Amino acid sequence: MTSSNNFQWRRDRDGLGVWEHRGKVAVVGYGHSPVDRRWDGVNLDTSLGAYTIMACEKAMEQAGVTIDQVDGIVCCDSHIAGGSGGSASNWAPRPYFDPPYDSEYGITLINAQWLINAMGFKNVRFAPTGVPTIGEMMGMASQAVGDGVCNTCLVIYPTGNLEGRYRRGGENADDFARGARQWTVPWGNHGGNDFINIFPHNQYCLKYGGEHDDLAPFVINQHKNGMLTLWGFNYNHGIEPISVEDYKTSRYILNPLRIWDCDRPVNASAAYLFTTAERAQDMKSQPVYVLNHSQHNFRFRTTQPDLDEVEMWTDRQAARMYEGAGLGPADVDIFNPYDGYSIMTQFFLEGFQWHGVKRGDAFAFYAGDISVKGPHPFFSSGGNLGNGRTRSAMYTDSIEQLRGTAGDRQVTVRAETALCAFTTPSSGGWLMLGKYQS
Amino acid sequence: MPKVIPVPDELSQPFWDAVNERRLVLQNCAACDKLQYPPQAACQVCGSADGLEWKEVEGKGHVATYIVIEDGRLNRRMPDQPYNLALVTLDQDPTVNFYSNLPGVPAYQAPVGAAVELTFEEVAPGQLIHEWRVAQ
């Protein structure tokens, strides 16, 4: 298979100008599996592999595309827990099962080759290995289609979770800290974006005034939007809406970070289908167009990023995205940044200045009307906090809002452009979508 | 419960050797005159590896902010929960920061903005780590 390193697809520098394929690439389908809390380790019909096949079939069906027409597969084969999550690539029950579930692939990890074999794709010519997470994959597929590397490309993001694995065992059970962990773990930081972002969040509260629990209206709104998302975890598992009191009395994880500030790891898969704007005209679904993609991977200057770095990084992300899309803050109708931990979202909101929100204004903005039916329908997807850690709600909601098919989540304001992401302040990617090509 | 024990590698060995001698040395780029920590293979400003040298710094800093780890995932530290995890900036260059558990300070009572000074803590026989305590 092709290595992602062989294809220069990233837009990860400042000053790249308007994207050369702006409006010439379209998203024509998406599909979601059920979203379970964990896989039970037994039922292969609910395994990550089965769920991924289901998501791909739904995405293709939506667009009326057959297996033979797919010539690109971009599939993330890393684990949601990451390297610090313990034995992250060694999670599956032993012994393995009969093919195609006879290794970690199909059970805890999925890659393009496993899908090609399991689903019988015959005409795939672009199937990179070493694929990054969904925040960057969406850009990779957009560039591949725009450049003609492939023509009809599935993007797949599987998120596996099994009982007792997440962040347990492995390095976290070790008495020794090796590599980069020697600088963090002896003092208790075992890694993750909760640790990375809680310190700048505290500095944010000190600098601009306010307190951690000012996040409550935002978190509660994410839950409300999640209850309007029919495929998501909360909607399908009877998660009760939370109140301000529930939030403020919830237990701490990394005080002041509360349990409700953290997304819920899940077992699920999502797929998206990309093609050229020209081909999209012949498909049965309504296309939405890619107006730009961008990526970033900023280096920490010392042990722990501080507020100054985080604000600089998010300013640069916004500048890159707006420049490449040829748009500005006032042009963005739908804004779905990232909320894997609620403490990082204000940095994106302010960096991109959505609805005029400037540095230090986010908590006051959260306290206003941010409901999907109001004038500022912030994060209409409900994000990870409202749907589970699928990291896909931001993309699916953006597509639905532009198509006008978001159901009870459909915003009442204009919905012609959408910004969506899976990103942290330091690394990830953004995608700008449009209802129209220009 | 003892802290997790750092394992030096080729790049970090001089740093930990100095810590075991109760000294704090950081990389300094001769060309940029910029300190950097943790150690890297090259200067993060100019990209040069040749100009990096080890420089002993004064062990004075300030508490920028802190959290309390109540539900962490390190097996070895779970009995210690809840405990402080502070962010300490180096006075000599406040863009350089360190983690600290602020030994002697009860959980939830870390003094944000307070001056701290360098100390050392043994985490295994012969292996120290750098820590910070509130200045008297």
Keywords:
heterodimer, A: 438 residues, alpha+beta, Peroxisomal Thiolase, Chain A, domain 1, two-stranded antiparallel sheet, 13 helices, 15% strand, globular, B: 136 residues, mainly beta, five-stranded antiparallel sheet, three-stranded antiparallel sheet, 1 helix, 9 strands
Computed structural class of chain B: mainly beta
**Shape by Cα distribution of chain A:** globular
Q: Which fold name fills CATH's third level, the topology of the domain at 4-166 and 266-280 in chain A?
A: Peroxisomal Thiolase, Chain A, domain 1
State the helical fraction of chain A. Answer: 25-40%
Tally of separate domains of chain B:
1
CATH architecture of the domain at 4-166 and 266-280 in chain A: 3-Layer(aba) Sandwich
Shape of chain B: globular
CATH superfamily of the domain at 4-166 and 266-280 in chain A: Thiolase/Chalcone synthase
Oligomer: heterodimer
| Number of strand segments of chain B | 9
Rg of chain A, alpha carbons: 20 Å
| Separation of the first and last Cα atoms of chain B | 26 Å
CATH class of the domain at 4-166 and 266-280 in chain A: Alpha Beta
Which percent range fits the helix content of chain B? under 10%
**Order of helical and strand elements of chain A:** EHEHHEEHHHHEEEHEHEHHHHEE
Largest interface: chains, residues each: A-B, 38 and 42 residues
User: How far apart are the termini of chain A?
Assistant: 34 Å
- The tally of helices of chain A reads 13
Low-confidence stretches of chain A: none
Q: Can you give the mean pLDDT of chain B?
A: 96
